[in-house]
Amino acid sequence: MHSLPDVSLRYGSLQVFHSLEEYKESGVCKIPGAVTLGKFDGVHIGHQKLIRKIMDFAHANSISSIVFAIEIQDRPILSHEERAVYLESLGVDILVECPFSREFMSMRAETFAREVLSETMHASYVCVGTDFGFGCRREGTASMLADLGRQYGFQVEIAAKERLFQEDVSSSRVRKALAKGDMKLANALLGRPYPVMGIVQHGRHLGTGIGVPTVNVHPGANKILPPDGVYASCTRLPDQTIRTGITNLGIRPTVGGKTRKAETTLFDFQADLYGQTIQTDLLDYLRPEHKFSSLDELKSQIGRDRESALAILPDECDRFYGGPAFEFHGQG
User: Fold this and answer.
1) Which one of 45, 155, 172, 196 is most buried, counting C-beta atoms within 10 A?
2) Which CATH architecture does the domain made up of 193-329 adopt?
3) CATH 2.40.30.30 occupies which residues in the chain?
4) pLDDT at 8 over 50
5) For residue range 125-168, what is the model confidence (pLDDT) as tens digits?
6) C-alpha R_g of the chain
7) 3 state SS for 223-288
8) Does the pLDDT of residue 101 top 70, yes or no?
């Protein structure tokens, strides 16, 4: 069943630590681990390759799988909650979010290998990409880490870069695709649909008044978002079903909106979702946001958007959600 884990459970079996100090104080750090390191702001298919390797090693050796995420100041592709939920769904045991502090920036590469990887994380195995850099001014390279691993007793594997459409997969490529509203490329790079997760909020109920009820979510404040507009989407509900729909991302100028929201019309569905966490996956861009002269004109356009979405959704849903356990609603 493709479902959204319950965020209220603190990401199910995944343990999340918001700093290296918090991890040290937990006592969990005494358990040996298979570790991968990087920004992991989108957990794209290149990141997933590293994660699969540490999980394979961890399972084979009965140790913990640990994702060490370096927190940078750039706006992330995923919110912290979205990243944690996805890592939990992959089966990762531990996520350590390490702020890119002045102290961390000035740490020498050898010190990082000894104090962080060996003495704090008790790493048995570390997997990084070929372009991995660490330590003050990125003085450490992947090959240097392998040398340090032999010195401090952990195995290092350097994984080749993942490629898609004859180019390296990277977070910057995902960001560029999102900036253009190229959801098919962004989703291919991510290996799954781009999500907008949040708690359903009360709106002005204008959609209900014209017979087109919506669910409203405020995206994460710092999260990168694609351009404002209307998207074909699928929404994962708390009851583990997935509903098709269309999502307007923007300020809703026709009704005098001021704040940016993800406002989703779910096809053939009505229920009270207020206060519950949902995840809306944006599958394809349909059109820009537009200010209509009346609500009737808006309602007519929503009908046309529905038809456009229904022409796209079967293929996209088969690609990302297909399978014998998949519950798919709203095909028309």
Assistant:
1) 196
2) Beta Barrel (2.40)
3) 193-329
4) no
5) 999 999 998 888 888 899 999 999 999 999 999 999 999 999 99
6) 22
7) CCCCCCEEEEEEEECCCCCEEEEEEEEECCHHHCCCCCEEEEEECCCCCCCCCCEEEEEEEEEEEE
8) yes
Domain 7-164 has CATH 3.40.50.620: yes
> Does 327 participate in catalysis according to the annotation?
no
Helix or strand or coil: residue 308? helix
Give the pLDDT confidence score for residue 163 in this predicted structure: 96
E strands within 169-218? 194-199, 215-217
State the amino acid at position 299 in one-letter form: K
Cβ(235)–Cβ(243) below 8 Å: yes
- CATH 3.40.50.620 residue spans of the chain: 7-164
Q: Cβ of 174: how many Cβ atoms within 10 Å? A: 26
Higher pLDDT among residues 221 and 225, named by residue: 225
Q: What is the DSSP secondary structure assignment for residue 116, as one 8-state letter? A: I
Q: How far is CA 120 from the centre of its chain?
A: 27
Strands of the chain (E only): list them.
15-17, 33-38, 64-71, 94-99, 123-129, 133-134, 140-141, 155-159, 163-164, 167-168, 194-199, 215-217, 229-236, 242-250, 261-266, 277-288, 328-329
Catalytic residue, chosen from 22, 263, 289, 307, is 263
**Token duo for residue 325:** 């356990």
pLDDT in tens, 112-137: 999 999 999 999 999 999 999 888 88
